[in-house]
Amino acid sequence: MHRNQAIVAIARHLLEVVWSVSLAPPARAGVTRRQPYRHFSQERIAYKYLTWSWQMDEEARDGLTRQQFAGYYLMKLGIGHDLTRIALDPKHPRRIASEAEVLALRPEVQRIE
């Protein structure tokens, strides 16, 4: 198979996956209901946002620190209200910005219950 044919085949397969997820019934589609993946803990999701922020520069994070970036997106998902530290590895706990700190910078984000 030629390289371009492989690229088109992979792109088509990805498009089919995205299409099938977007047509899933709302009761089962966590993506369309803006719900976090139910098999992850809030701490694990916060760690994913934190590691994502490590790959970005300050401009991509829109002026937020890495800790504020993780706290901001947790608030947008409506989870981690009391989470201020991540201790997946007890030797290296990581700090997450509190809701008060994020609201001071981004008052338009409201706490979702």
What can you tell me about this protein's structure?
It is a single chain. The chain is mainly alpha-helical. The protein folds into 2 domains: 1-33; 35-113, no CATH class. It has 4 helices and 2 strands. The chain has helices at residues 3-22, 42-54, 66-77, 99-105; strands at 85-86, 94-95. A two-stranded antiparallel sheet has the order 1-2. The radius of gyration is 18 Å and the shape is elongated.
Q: What key phrases describe this protein's structure?
A:
mainly alpha; single chain; two-stranded antiparallel sheet; 2 domains; 113 residues; 4% strand
Brief write-up:
The chain is mainly alpha-helical. The protein contains 4 helices and 2 strands; from the N terminus they run αααββα. 46% of the residues lie in helices and 4% in strands.
Question: Topology of this structure?
Answer:
Blueprint: H1 3-22, H2 42-54, H3 66-77, E1 85-86, E2 94-95, H4 99-105
Antiparallel strand pairs: 1-2
Helix pairs in contact: 2-3, 3-4
Cα shape? elongated
How many domain units?
2
Number of helices: 4
> Helical percent range?
40-55%
Write the element-wise H/E pattern from the N-terminal end onward. HHHEEH
Strand order of the largest sheet: 1-2
Determine the strand fraction and express it as a percent band: under 5%
**How many strands, which pairing sense, and closed or not: the largest β-sheet?**
2 strands, antiparallel
